[in-house]
Structures are given as C-alpha cells and as structure tokens.
Design goal:
With 386 residues, this protein is α/β, with parallel strands linked by helices. It has helices spanning 2-18, 25-39, 41-49, 59-93, 101-123, 161-173, 190-197, 215-219, 222-231, 271-275, 294-299, 319-324, and strands at 127-135, 145-150, 178-182, 209-212, 235-236, 240-246, 249-255, 284-287, 304-307, 332-336, 339-343, 362-370. The relative contact order is 0.15. InterPro entries: Calcineurin-like_PHP, Metallo-depent_PP-like, Metallophosphoesterase_sf.
C-alpha cells in the first residue's frame, strides 16, 4: 500500500512539474524516472537490503535521498494547494483558467528548499530541553533527582558514530543521576551497526543506564540487540523493573516491550509482569516506547510515563495525523489521570524520512520534585528548550 501511494505521488509530481518544462522529451523522461525512483526509495531499499528501514549507502547519499524524497512530498503538497486554487478560480469565473507554468516550477523550487532545510534540521545534534516533574510521595532523597531521557536515536548511516560520540559527551557533561532510553536505538543489523553503537558504552550516570525496546529493535534481530545493549553496559528492561534507593526511599524504574513484539512471536507489553515484586509505595518511572497505552499505565499507578515513537510529528501540521494513531499523544507533556506522560520528539529520527520543520529533536533532562515542594513545578507541554 505504501509503495502504491508513493508511486501515485511520484507520478503526480512528475506530471505537474516535468510536463511544463521546456526540455527535450528524453530529458523529461530522465527527470520523471528519477522522481519515481526517489518516491519509491523505501521499496528499493527493501529489495536491496531485505528491510526498508536501513539504507546502507554512504551518508552523503542517504542525505541526498532524504532531500529528494522530502522534496517530492512537499512539492506534491504545494501543487495540491495550487490545483485547488486553480479549480476554485475557474469555478468562480466559470472559465477554465490554468496557472502559468512558472507557478509549478516555483512550487518545485520551494519544495526542494524546504526539504533541504528540513534534512539539515534533522541531522543536527538535538537541542537540550529541561523539565521538572512534581511527584506525589517522592522520597526526600530523590528531591532534585536528574534523569536524562533519550529515545529514537535510530543509529544508522545517517546518525553514525560521530553523532553518537558527540551526544554521549553532552549527556555525560550533565552528570545525571540516571539515563533512560525508551527504544528505537538502531536502524540496521548488528554486523553493520556495531561501530555506530559502540560509543554508547561510555554513557555514565550515578545510578546507571536503562533501556527498553522500541519497534525498530524487532525489525533487526531483537535478541542480538538485547544482548549487545547489555554488553555496552546498559540494563535492559523488557517487562521488568529495577529499584533505586536513596536515603531509605525507593524509586522504581520499569520498562515494557513494544506493542509490535507479538508480531515477532515475542512477549507483548505486560505492566503487571514489569511491576511484579516492586514496592507499592515507591513512585514508578516507566519506559514505554509508544504512548498509546498511557491511560492504562496511569490506572496501574505509574507516576511518570516516558515515550517517543511519534518523532513529534516531524513537520508542523502533521500532528493531527500522527495523533490519530497514538491515542491523541504526539509531543510534549500530558496530564493523564494524575500521571505525567512525556512524549519526546526524539533524539534523532528514522533515516527513511529524516525531515524536521518546526519540530526539533531533543535531549531531555527531567528533574524530579516532591509535589507541593519548593521545586519548579511541572512545565507546560511547550516548555522552551535551553
């Protein structure tokens, strides 16, 4: 279905943009074929590598493909607006009044420029975002406790080892008490990603680094990656929890498997299993890659629910579409039946659509405070990055 839709979009762009160009027929055919190939790059990636989520070509090529793919989508959207305007004008005048060819070319140039800007925004280091959450019955020893939340790193040819090394240095400079990663660390099988993930072994926090799986872990050999994360010094949490103690008080850090796990014959998310044996009076910080189960988790007594998966919608205007598939949760902080749900825009982005316009990536630092204490309180979902 996806390939069919992209084929239609590619054909539409080729007809609207290439048709009016004053170039020889053979030139129009070449440009049209290039547009169609870019539109179907995910299908071609699947044919070449057996998986549409991992384009194993030089980074410059991956960037160029993303610019081209983004330009096709944006140019198509701009042409739809132009066509609607042309139709409305013709109906008002009761006479067919096509737009001059320059409008189509201008839309294509604008689409390409926006795509280049979007890819440039996507591949840069994430902005740091600082938040404070007030937690009921937070033990005194955890007042001011700092948690760095990473998610959707999607390490790949696009987000490769130099990106990871710079990110790890920034995280460690914050000297957090805890580092948590809520899934989708990788795009690619272990044999091609080993060097890219290696710097994650240098992540350092007083109480360790914890990770839960996202859907992309299951696309590339879940068992091999789960073992690798442990070898890198991370503590995996898949329907499991850990107990962190400070001054006689405790904080529970739990993690769930991803909703896609059952499709691969692996355990589905199970909050009861994750919290089995956990102290009932301890606040619970939950890693759950997709935010769709937030209401269920709130009913189960979770205090802080950290997710990613949505990438924040990636482009301004897409939030309503993304919300339809994520129970209305797309980006930022939500109050869900007394629980803090935080949906990160993501530390990086899937390399198959690396485009950000108005929705920046983020490195999130969260400070825990007792409810009613002297802390900063809970900021709105639109908290400003620092």
């Amino acid at each position: 279905m996806f390939a069919t839709v992209m084929g239609i979009i590619g054909a539409y762009v080729a007809l609207r943009v290439v048709g009016p160009l004053g170039i020889p027929l053979w030139g129009k055919l070449l440009v049209s074929v290039a547009i169609l190939l870019l539109a179907e790059n995910h299908l071609l990636t699947k044919w070449a590598y057996g998986n549409m989520f991992s384009l194993e070509l030089p980074r410059a090529v991956v960037i160029a493909v993303n610019v081209g793919f983004g330009a096709i989508l944006l140019t198509a959207a701009l042409h739809v607006l132009l066509d609607l305007f042309m139709l409305a004008r013709s109906l008002l005048l009761w006479q067919w009044r096509p737009l001059a060819p320059g409008w189509s070319l201008g839309a294509a140039v604008l689409g390409l420029a926006l795509a280049a800007l979007g890819v440039a925004n996507a591949v840069r280091q994430p902005a740091q975002k600082d938040l404070a959450f007030e937690i009921a019955d937070l033990p005194e020893g955890f007042d001011g406790y700092s948690v760095v939340h990473l998610t959707d790193l999607h390490l790949s040819r696009l987000f490769h080892r130099p990106f990871v090394e710079a990110l790890v240095a920034r995280v460690n400079a914050l000297e957090p008490d805890l580092i948590v990663i809520s899934g989708d660390l990788i795009d690619g099988f272990l044999d091609v990603r080993r060097e890219d993930v290696a710097p994650l072994a240098d992540l350092a926090a007083r109480d360790g680094v914890y990770v839960s799986p996202g859907n992309h872990e299951y696309y590339f050999g879940y068992e091999s990656w789960w073992t690798t994360y442990q070898q890198l010094g991370m503590r995996p949490l898949a329907n499991a929890h850990a107990r962190i103690e400070r001054d006689g008080g405790a904080l529970v850090v739990a993690g769930l498997t991803d909703l896609s796990a059952a499709r691969f014959g692996l355990p589905a998310p199970d909050i009861d299993a994750a919290l089995a044996g956990a102290p009932e009076d301890a606040p619970v910080l939950l890693l759950n890659h997709q935010p769709r189960q937030a209401r269920e988790m709130a009913a189960r007594g979770v205090d802080v629910h950290l997710s990613g998966h949505t990438h924040g919608g990636m482009v301004v205007g897409l939030a309503s579409l993304v919300a339809r598939y994520n129970e209305g949760f797309v980006s930022g902080l939500y109050a869900v039946d007394g629980m803090h749900l935080y949906v990160s825009n993501g530390t990086a982005l899937w390399p198959g659509f690396a485009l950000r316009l108005g929705v920046p990536s983020e490195l999130t630092r969260i400070i825990l405070r007792p409810r009613g204490g002297a802390g900063q309180g809970v900021p709105d979902a639109g908290a400003v990055a620092s």
